[in-house]
Every structure is written in C-alpha cells, then in structure tokens.
Amino acid sequence: MSPAGLAAAPTIPETGPETPDIDLFDALTVVDDLPCRRAEEDLWFSDLPADLERAKALCGDCPVRRACLSGALERREYCGVWGGEILDRGAVIARKRPRGRPSKADLARDAEIAAARAAAGVA
Ligand code: SF4
C-alpha cells in the first residue's frame, strides 16, 4: 500500500498487437491546432499542383514542421505534403507537375528551383 497522499506511480502500457506503438508524429497529429488539421485536409493530398503549393504554404506556420518532414522521409511516405515539402514515392520533389507535357517555362522554373535547393544544401 502506498503512503497516504501519494498517488500510485503511473504505469506504462506494454506495446503489442492490441496497443500499437504511437510515435511522435502520431501523437502530434491529434493536436487540432496544426495547420493541416484546421484547413481542408484534401489540400495535402490533392492531384492539383496549386492545392499542393497552398498546403506547402500553410505548413510554413506549423510548429512541428521539421519533425513532420523527417518522419515522412523516414517512413518513405508515398505522396502528399509533409513538413512543407511535396513527397513523391518517398522523396522530396520541388513541385508537382500538372498533367501533360511540361512547358518550357515549367522546365526552366524547375531548373531554377533545383539550383536554388542545391545551393542551399537541401536535397
Ligand atoms: S508540417 Fe506536417 S503537421 Fe504541420 S501542417 Fe504540415 S503536414 Fe501538418
């Protein structure tokens, strides 16, 4: 029996099939104040490049942006916006192309973005 006035020590539940592991990102996603929880969730997984750019901008205010991106890269998320970046098959891409053949302007902009990212040391 514990001494009067002292609460019993908290118990840590064992992990197993009935109690799945919860990682940092899962815990943080329950926080309703994250931008992706406040805005339309479809933006983060849209097929439209403009929607993904909007999601990236909204991620800019997120307090867990770095953890979100590193977790997504670790898990090799297949698609979507994570930590302010667009992931495609587990890798960061500069931007999602619209359907169809890219225009010369798009290709030039992609080259500029890639050069700027390389200069900044971003993969
Ligand atoms: S950084 Fe991650 S957690 Fe934050 S708004 Fe973007 S997708 Fe959501």
Q: Would you mind describing this structure in some detail?
A:
This protein is mostly helical and 123 residues long. The protein has a domain at 24-98. The protein has helices at 24-29, 35-38, 49-59, 65-75, 104-120, and strands at residues 79-82, 85-88, 91-93. Strands 1-2-3 form a 3-stranded antiparallel beta sheet. Strand 2 (85-88) and strand 3 (91-93) form a beta hairpin. The longest helix has 17 residues, at 104-120. The chain is globular and about 40 Å long. The relative contact order is 0.10. The model is unreliable at 1-22 (pLDDT under 50). Residues 34-36, 44, 59, 62, 64-65, 68, 81-84 line the site of iron/sulfur cluster.
Which features characterize this protein?
single chain; 123 residues; mainly alpha; 3-stranded antiparallel β-sheet; 5 helices; disordered N terminus; binds iron/sulfur cluster
Q: Mean pLDDT, rounded to whole units?
A: 78
Number of helices: 5
Return residue spans where pLDDT drops below 50 for at least 5 consecutive residues.
1-22
Shape: globular
Bound molecules: iron/sulfur cluster
Strand arrangement in the largest pleated sheet: 1-2-3
Number of strands: 3
Structural class: mainly alpha
Distance between the termini: 57 Å
Q: Cα-atom Rg, whole angstroms?
A: 20 Å
Order of helices and strands: HHHHEEEH
Please bin the fraction of helical residues: 25-40%
Largest sheet, in brief, is:
3 strands, antiparallel
Portion in beta strands: 5-15%
